[in-house]
Write a structure and sequence with these properties.
Elements: H1 10-14, E1 23-28, E2 31-35, E3 41-49, E4 52-61, H2 66-81, H3 86-99, H4 104-115
Antiparallel strand pairs: 1-2, 2-3, 3-4
Amino acid sequence: MPRKTAPLTDSALKVAKPKDRPYKLSDGEGLYLEVMPNGSKLWRLKFRFNGKENRLALGTYPTVPLQQARKRREDARQLLALGKNPAAERDASRLALQLDGQSFEAIAREWHAYRKPRWAPSDAPNER
């Protein structure tokens, strides 16, 4: 049975000081804040998928506040309940955003439109 931990508070996050080694402040259900020696504070989620332990980065504190980190934890746990790996789902959505509108045809048409004013009429054939 998992251990119960006291939930984090904003004041505990603000006063967390860096030490000579990284350390964790646990919020429960796999969510923790990792305080690095350089002073950065990173939200992480520890979870198991297909019998393997994984970690998912959820953002930096204070850019991602405590309530938003908890919301992201719940979203990831919902994906796990559906049998999906949250890290793979995030990577797939990022790749889809990156590839959206980046087909060869779209880039070629953009290049053609940019160059066309500099060309002689015989060099720029009529567009279809």
